[in-house]
Design brief:
The protein has 247 residues and is of the alpha/beta class. It has 2 domains: 126 residues, NAD(P)-binding Rossmann-like Domain (Rossmann fold, 3-Layer(aba) Sandwich), CATH 3.40.50; 95 residues, no CATH class. Helices cover 25% and strands 30% of the residues. The strands form 2 sheets. Strands 4-3-8-9-10-7-11 form a 7-stranded mixed sheet. A hairpin with a 2-residue loop joins β9 and β10. α1 packs across α3 and α1 runs parallel beside α7. The protein is globular and about 55 Å long. The mean pLDDT is 95.
Length: 247
């Protein structure tokens, strides 16, 4: 099949890779600019053909305070489902930075320069057998009645403490009195995250949920295209592969 992938961030290039592994013809429509990955992140699963078979690291999760305190800091709701519920102890991890570097080197020259807007989507749908979008859905939404629930985040990159070199750790902070809720070292990058403004912070919006049903003909993959809490980067590979196998 002829497939268009919208976006060339980590999610977009993982989608391209998954589709090509199944033998499809893929065109990437995007502004040809490598995405900046804020803070410290990692892949929870490897990507076949991109990452090593065995994990790059082992991440240690530490939880301070209470689950309710953490959820209240992040979402303003102590009963909201959150990462605190899912992680405690040690977990395998793969470098998202190395994976994206590999994918970018492999696919950068294949990007068709295009700033995709909502008005472009009908023509793209008509041109390709399948359209996979990783573009944040608010940018493609055409209904002002649709809502996108999210919370602000502020991430400050930090110098890696010399004594912590080689360590992989995520600290969830549910203690009262501290504004920050996550401190981490992942892939040699250290950062701290809060819902409150901090000096030198990278500001963004954490996707939570939405009611947008624009462009049901497209396959939305990745957290920002789905605009849904709990979507991890490796899910993109499985979502694309499952959809194409089904097709």
């Amino acid at each position: 099949m002829n497939i268009a992938v919208l976006g060339c961030g980590p999610a977009g290039l993982i989608a391209v890779h998954a589709a090509e592994q199944l033998g499809h013809n893929v065109e990437i429509l995007s502004v040809p600019q490598k995405s900046y990955i804020p803070g410290s992140q990692y892949l929870h699963e490897g990507i076949p053909g991109v990452t090593p078979h065995y994990p790059d690291y082992t991440v240690e999760y530490i939880r301070l305070g209470t689950r309710q305190g953490y959820a209240n800091k992040v979402y303003g709701d102590p009963e909201r489902a959150c990462g605190w519920d899912a992680y405690r102890g040690l977990y395998p991890s793969w470098s998202v930075y190395n994976a994206y570097d590999t994918l970018w080197e492999r696919y950068e020259h294949r990007i068709t320069p295009m700033s995709v807007l909502a008005g472009d989507v009908p023509a793209i749908i008509d041109t390709y057998d399948i359209v996979i979008t990783t573009i944040p859905q608010p940018k493609l939404c055409q209904d002002v009645e649709h809502w996108f629930d999210g919370v602000p985040y502020f991430i400050v990159p930090l110098d890696l403490p010399p004594e912590e070199h080689g360590r992989e750790i995520v600290v969830y902070n549910g203690l009262p009195g501290d504004e920050w809720y996550r401190w981490s070292i992942l892939g040699g990058r250290c950062s701290i995250e809060s819902t409150m403004p901090m000096e030198g912070a990278i500001e963004g919006r954490k996707a939570v949920s939405n009611n947008c049903d624009c462009w049901p003909e497209t396959l939305r993959v990745g957290r920002w295209a789905k605009w849904q809490h709990g979507v991890l980067l490796h899910n993109v590979y499985h979502d694309v592969a499952n959809e194409l196998w089904k097709g």
